[in-house]
């Protein structure tokens, strides 16, 4: 019982797909006849409670779980579980997937008896295929699944979009819509892939279709408009990107959510917004950011202005705008600690931008430090070899 519990605690940091599968709340039920009365708080940002009753253990973790771990640790604990069940297996598949170990994820999935495989394990293995670029394997697994739920189809659309197979993604959406109400998540998923592909024609089509099908889904339309504006900017059409973004936001009467990053240092949770100077150690943080910039440039790094979606003010430079992003501030704050934390962990409420992603990969390498950034979409584990676990699919 306790080992299962330890395992879950260790892997919850990886469990973005549980959240997706379980409707934004973690809710896992494990039958167990052993008596257990302990209850324990998880380190979380808002509310979390672990309730253990005599026969059943319910784990219900609300909002973000602020815990991350390493794949080796997860695997060690997994191996120590004498009779892995569907939950432990699925957690491990998910951990493999998020760490770019698609083949290991598929092998473990294949070991689960067919009648025990459930929607969560199917989502996790398809996600693992997606993040490791294993398209044929994903199709094989997808075709074997008898009950294809909206979530299963969405994850397949995600897989196809990440691998730039947009016609097949569109076909899946079209056939889904023949017998179901359209799903806005599928469209946003496809748009994310289109942004990475910088495919402007198809992006415009998808966005306009979204607007006509989902006129009241304001949050999703704002996300779509920002993705499309990013594509214009990434093609050098900065003015068009800015105009498009502001026109759409005005039309949708929405303000963009402010990007925030959090990091926990010495048991204290610190929050940063972009260009934040409210922290008492701000001058040290900005001095560290200057050192980051100098080291990055010395290693051949070029700041990527395509991720700037607002006009640059007179006193700013491309570098100063990008270095002021909240996740870079949170990372710099860790590096001014003594000792520097052995693993740096940051949580961001929006998706990490492409410049922060590329810069963090190089910082992890130059400074020889693992950096874990949990963004609105997934966990990025930047390793000291300069690679990210998402393999640049984000
Ligand atoms: Zn950024
Ligand atoms: Zn990444």
From TrEMBL:
Q: Which Gene Ontology terms describe the biological processes this protein takes part in?
A: RNA modification
Q: Which residues form the DYW domain?
A: 300-393
Q: Which domain of life is it from?
A: Eukaryota
The protein's organism comes out as: Rotaria magnacalcarata
One GO term in the molecular function aspect is: zinc ion binding
Q: Which Pfam families match?
A: DYW_deaminase, PPR
Give the organism's phylogenetic lineage: Eukaryota, Metazoa, Spiralia, Gnathifera, Rotifera
Q: Which InterPro entries is this protein grouped with?
A: DYW_dom, PPR_At4g14850-like_plant, PPR_rpt, TPR-like_helical_dom_sf
Record's protein name? DYW domain-containing protein
């Amino acid at each position: 019982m306790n080992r299962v519990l330890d395992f879950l605690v260790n892997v919850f940091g990886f469990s973005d797909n549980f959240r997706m599968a379980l409707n934004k709340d973690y809710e896992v039920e494990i039958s167990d006849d052993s008596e257990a009365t302990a209850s324990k708080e998880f380190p979380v940002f808002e509310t979390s409670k672990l309730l253990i009753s005599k026969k059943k253990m319910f784990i219900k973790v609300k909002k973000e779980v602020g815990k991350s771990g390493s794949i080796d640790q997860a695997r060690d604990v997994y191996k120590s579980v004498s009779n892995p069940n569907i939950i432990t297996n699925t957690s491990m598949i998910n951990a493999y997937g998020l760490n770019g170990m698609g083949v290991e994820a598929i092998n473990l999935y294949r070991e689960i008896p067919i009648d025990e495989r459930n929607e969560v394990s199917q989502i996790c293995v398809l996600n693992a295929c997606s993040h490791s670029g294993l398209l044929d394997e994903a199709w094989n697994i997808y075709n074997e699944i008898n009950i294809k739920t909206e979530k299963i189809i969405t994850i397949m659309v995600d897989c196809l979009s990440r691998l730039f197979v947009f016609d097949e993604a569109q076909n899946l959406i079209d056939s889904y819509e023949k017998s179901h109400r359209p799903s806005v998540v599928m469209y946003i998923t496809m748009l994310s892939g289109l942004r990475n592909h910088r495919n402007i024609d198809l992006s415009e089509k998808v966005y306009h279709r979204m607007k006509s099908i989902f006129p009241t889904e304001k949050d999703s339309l704002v996300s779509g408009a920002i993705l499309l504006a990013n594509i214009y900017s990434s093609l050098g059409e900065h003015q068009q990107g800015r105009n498009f973004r502001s026109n759409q936001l005005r039309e949708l009467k929405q303000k963009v959510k402010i990007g925030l990053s959090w990091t926990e240092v010495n048991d204290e949770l610190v929050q940063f917004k972009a260009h934040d100077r409210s922290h008492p150690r701000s001058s040290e943080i900005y001095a560290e950011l200057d050192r980051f910039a100098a080291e990055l440039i010395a290693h051949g790094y070029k700041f990527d202005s395509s991720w700037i979606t607002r006009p640059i003010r007179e006193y700013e430079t491309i570098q100063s705008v990008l270095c002021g992003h909240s996740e870079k501030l949170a990372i710099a704050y860790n590096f001014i600690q003594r000792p520097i934390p052995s693993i740096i962990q940051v949580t961001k409420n929006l998706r990490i931008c492409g410049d922060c992603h590329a810069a963090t990969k190089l910082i992890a390498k130059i400074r020889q430090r693992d950096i874990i950034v949990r963004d609105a979409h997934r966990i990025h584990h930047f390793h000291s070899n300069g690679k990210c676990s998402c393999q640049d699919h984000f």
